[in-house]
Amino acid sequence: MNAAFAPMLSAGELAALFGHFLLLSLLAIGGAITVAPEMHRVLVDRMALLTDAQFNASIAIAQAAPGPNVLFVAVMGYQAGGLVAALVALTAIMLPSTTLALAASRWGHARREWRPVQAFKAGMAPIVIALLMATGWILAAATPGWRHLVLTVAAALLVWRTRIHLLWLIAAGAVAGALGWV
Amino acid sequence: MPTEAAPPERPRSPGELFVAFTLLALQGFGGVLAVAQRVLCEQRRWLTREQFVEILAIGQILPGPNVCNVALMVGDRFFGWRGAFAALAGMMTAPVAIVIALTALYAQFAALPAVAGALKGMGAVAAGMIVGSALKLVPALRGNALRLPASLAFGAAAFVLVALVRAPLVWVLLGLGALACATAAWRLRAADKR
I want to staple B184 with a disulfide (CB 3.0 to 4.6 A). Which of A9, A122, A152, B61 is the partner? Predict the structure, then answer.
């Protein structure tokens, strides 16, 4: 794979990519990663723009890079059709959801004294915190073995109980992993 | 425990939002939420824990990347659509450039065992950071209308369903979320009558 020389896509393919990701944006409750199986069906199985290995590498690269995980969509676009396709895919996955989020946030803020809005905030608060914990759990459980769990638990305790800079933790994890301790 | 009503600080300009979210995104390896909680609630103090949980609740229930929704809503609250755009642009611009550059390099280095090991170690730490920031948000439940026992019960049920049963998120939000909101509405109404 050499992404720099990836084939450029036709206008029709770019339009199909754009339209498809616009639609997926509104289905991605819980983040763009929740619609990854659907992206796989379209990009790998139907349009054959990516191989399986490229698809998996896209997610791994975005996880390892700083920034929001949704960037895996830009990586997929880049591998399928260079910079243009990366921007097309990223714009399409962001546009509907951000527009909706902005509208919903304003609507809720304007009615923040309204009883149903207060009930929503109070009711959702424990579930939101639990979903964060579940995300950490699922990420940790995805790796086989147990040695990496030592790092996970240590990082959780340090973040919870101290003000240590988060980059130190990431760096420690990278070093421990590079030395083969994980 | 008194709930902090207003956060003590606010950004001075959309430019400051852009810079803050750029720095925040660049620290977010394997997910930005843990860093967002640390920076927005503790370092910059633009949001109270309660406000962060509220904004995250909207971000979670809506489609789209949660942290991007959070950036958008935080920016919007301070400077309207200009702030929303500045925060989201800060969150995306530098990381997009980095991730594309990494993709171009990836093919040459993916096979090195040290690189694969480092990625694994960073992933393990990132998972722990998310759990740690969730633990930090638990005190935000103290002033909750649900009251603590019901809050903890709903939280525990959501964790079991999503992390252990692996139930689809949509159904957890629609089912358990609706039940929790209905309970909160009932508690709020009961409090009004007294």
Answer: A122
